[in-house]
UniProtKB/TrEMBL annotation:
CDD domains: NAD_bind_1_malic_enz (cd05312)
Key words of the record: Metal-binding, Oxidoreductase
UniProt family annotation: Belongs to the malic enzymes family.
Malic enzyme NAD-binding domain residues: 303-558
Binding positions (a divalent metal cation): 278-279, 302
Annotated binding of (S)-malate, by residue: 169, 445, 489
Name of the featured protein: Malic enzyme
Cofactor binding notes: Divalent metal cations. Prefers magnesium or manganese.
Glycosyltransferase as UniProt keyword: no
Domain Malic enzyme N-terminal, chain residue ranges per copy: 93-293
UniProt cofactor(s): Mg(2+); Mn(2+)
Cellular component annotations (GO), alphabetically ordered: mitochondrion
Gene Ontology annotations of biological process type: malate metabolic process
Amino acid sequence: MGLASGKTQCCEHCSRNGAVATGSAGSTGALIVGCPKFARRMDYLRDPRICKNLAFSARDRDNMSLRGLIPPAVRSVETELQAVMDNIKLYESGLAKYLYLRELHEYTEELMPLVYTPVVGEACLKYSLIYRRPKGLFLTAQDAGKLYDVLGNWPEKQVDAIVVTDGERILGLGDLGANGMGIPVGKLALYTALAGIHPERTLPVMLDLGTNNEILLADPYYIGLRQKRIRGAQYDDFVDEFMQAAVKRCVRSVRAQCACAVCMSYETFGKNCLIQFEDFGNRNAFKLLAKYKNSYCTFNDDIQGTASVAVAGLLASMRITKTPLSSNKFLFMGAGEASLGIAELLVMAMVKEGATEADARNSIWMLDSRGLIVKDRAPNGDSTQSHKEKFAKDAKQMNNLLEIVKFVKPTVLIGASAQSNAFNKEILECMCANAERPVVFALSNPTHKAECTAEAAYTYTDGKCVYASGSPFPPFKYKGKTFYPGQGNNAYIFPGIALAVSACGVTTIGDEVFLIAAKTVANTVTEQNLNEGRVYPPLSDIHDVSLNIAAELASHFYATGVATVKPEPKDKMAFLQSKQYDFSYPGTVKVK
C-alpha cells in the first residue's frame, strides 16, 4: 500500500531502528527496509511486482542494499525478455514449460497456450504435486462464518477482479477439487497479459467445498479438503457469504497502534469488484448466474464468455458462407453450460438480424447424453432441464449422431461435449451434403477432448469446411492450400470486458455486453484472415482486440448510464490505456 510522505515509520521497530522507506513515496512497490512487517531484501527479489531481476541499476542496488545479492551485469528489459524465451525453449514438455512460466510471470503470444489452454489442463491434473507456494486464496467449508476475515488475510487490499471456481467441472476433465486453482490463476494471468489489468489487483479464489473425485481423496499429496462435496442449502449459504464478504467495505487499522498509510487499508473490495465464475458444475452454474447477475458485478465465463467467442466465430463464418445467421440450421452436440450459453446468445444475435425469437429457437437443435432433445422426452431431474426445453423439438427420439445429422441436416455443427473424435469421417462427409461450406466448431478442451482435429475436418470435408476449435491446432496443408484453424478461446473476450467494467466502474453486466464483444471480435477478422481459414484474428492481435472490445463497451456503458466513473471521457481509447498496467520497470528512489 502507499506510504505517507517524508520520513515514514510504520511501527515501534521502525522508530527504534531508524528504518526508512525505499521506493517511490505513495507507490504500491514501497518497502520499509528492516521492518519485520515488510519484505526482507531476498523477499524483495522474489516479488514479481517490484523485482527487476538483472535490470536493477547500480543506484538501485545501492539504495536497496542488493549489491552482492545478484550478479553484477545490468540487463535491459528487452534482454530479460529474450532470456525468458530462450530458456523456455529448453524445456520439452508442456508441463515443464508451465512450471517455468509460473515462476517467471512473463507472457507473450508464443507462451499463451502454456498460460492457459491446453497446458493448464495438465497442470490442474497434477496441481497438488507441482504446488510450490500460494497463488491465490483458498476458502474452505471449514471457514464458513469467517469468510470476511479470511478474505482480509489477502495482502493486497485493492482488488478489481476476482476469478472464482469450486473446481467441480474443470475444462473437460471433471471434478478436480482444489486442483482447479490453476484455472483462476491462469485466467487472471491473461487479464494482465492481454488487457493490462494490474496484477496486484487480481485475486484467484478457490471455494473448496470438497470433491467427489475418489482418486484425489486417496492422493497423499492432495492439497484440498478430504471430504465429499457439500450440496444444497449449505453450499448456497457458503457462496452467499463469499459474495457478500467480497464486496463489503470497512476501513480499519491492521495494526491497532499504527495509523500510517501502509497499515490503514480496505479489507475487501467493493461493489465494483468484478467476480468471474469459472468451471462450476452445471447444477450450480446457471443457478448462481441467475441469482447474482442483477445484484453483483459478475458473469460466468463458461456460459457467457464461451457464448461470446463462439458467436464471434459464427459471425465471421457467415462472411465465408455468404449467408445470414438466421438462414442456417444449428446442431449442438452437448447441452451443458457452453452449448446453452452459445444458443441463447445466438438467438439474441439472430433477433438483432431481424428474425423472430421463435424462428431463431426453431433453427437450433441440441443433443445431450440422452439423445436428441425433443418435447415428449421424460424428465430425469436434470438441473438444466428448463434451459434445454426452450430448444426441444417436435421430433422422434434419436440417439445416434450420424442418424441425427442426416435427419436435422444442419449447416453448422458445434461440439461442446468433451467426446473426442465424435465428429468422425461419416459425420463430416455428411455435413458436406447439407451445405457447400459447412461450419464445424469442435470447442471442447483440452486438445485431446476435441470432437475432431483440424486435420480430420479439412480432410473429410475435402477442404470445404469452416473450422474452429477450443484448443489450438497447428496449420494444416491440404491439396496445396494451408489452412490456419481458428481457436475459439475465451481469452478473446473476457480480458476486454474486465478492462471496460473496471475502468468504467460498472456494477452489473448485462447480456448485451457479450454480443457487443462478439461483434467486435468478428469485425477485426480481415479478408486475408478469412482466406486463410481463420474465423478469429491471429493471437498476435489479441492485445488490440481486447482494447477494441473495452472501447466499444465503454461507449455502451456511458450511453446506457451504467458507468459510475465521472465525468465521461471524450477519448475512450486513451482513457482505457491510462488505466492499463505499465509493464516497464519502475524507478527506485530512496526516501529520506
